[in-house]
Structure formats: structure tokens, C-alpha cells
Specification:
alpha/beta; 7 strands; globular
Length: 196
Amino acid sequence: MPFKKAKILGLASGGGQQCPVFAAQHAEVTVFDYSDKQLELEKMVSTREGYSIEIVKGDMSKTFPFEDETFDMIFNPVSNCYIQDVEHVWQECFRVLKKGGVLLSGFANPALYLFGEDEKALQVVNKLPYDGTKNTVENDEELIKNGGVQFSHSLETQIGGQLKAGFTLQDLYEDHHHKGKITEYMPCYIATKSIK
């Protein structure tokens, strides 16, 4: 899809990593994220590189603050591991995309959550689906070090949830993590391309 003048939503995509690529292709980019730090980075990069971007703070586990059929494309990197109800996200994505719009989404392979903190041991310690609110971390610093409160989602809710929302799955790609023992044995991430 040509990006010039395309309306693109970076969903939970703050941090100045992905949205600048779309802005460089002359897209009209909106970034929607819950993290103040990620949004500050987004603003810093856009100012430094001299492009405009709309920055919206919000929670993707709630109703998105956008009208129906607003965007031509949604880019959602690996971020839905921070919410419990991923099917709600797919429904909202479908609502705010224009007919024929594209959803590009990345997410963690649910099998990643089987293993504990010691990746070298590759010992199964968690039952799926993993619920980060039930972990034993007792303070904020340790929680941040461990990646925050995370949740695993089944492929049924990740891919099946997109289909249930009304999307047509057009492509799927698996990728390995850049570090850790587990990447020697299995793909750690999945990316999908779906069409409204």
C-alpha cells in the first residue's frame, strides 16, 4: 500500500521506533500509547527528525478514542501481552479501520510463557494462559525489570480473535528472538497481516 497521505495508527507503538518509518513515507501518523515515557520518546524523535505526528495517550484495553473507519492501516507491534482481553482490541481495530484497511500485528508465541526467568534451564514452570497478576513480584522495580505485568494469549484469541472481529487473514510470519536459549528451538514471535 502506498503510504503517502495514508492515515496510519501506531497502536501501543510509542517510543519513536516504528512510526517514524511511516512518517518518512509521508503518511499521516497517529501514535496511541499508554506509557508517558514511550510517548515522550515519540515526541523527541519527531522533533529531532522534523516530522509531525499526532500523539494520543490512552488505554487500548478500553474503547479507542477514534471515530469509526478513521484509518487506512493499523500497526500494532508486540504489545498486547500487557492486556488481558485481546479480542476487544481486534474488535476496536476493525471498527476504526476503513473498509479494505490493513492490520499489521505482532505478538509473542504463547509457548514463551511456559518458561520461567531462567531461560538457560528451559524448564516449564507456568501453566497457560499465563496471567502476570498472579506472579510473586512484590515491588515496582522488580516488576519493571521483569517486563511489567504480562499475559499470554492463545492463538485462538490472537488469530481467531481477528477472524471473529471480521478480518480476513492474508499472511502470517514467524520470527525468532534476538537473544535467549529458547530462540534456538522455536520461533518466538508471530506477525499477521489482516484485511478489513
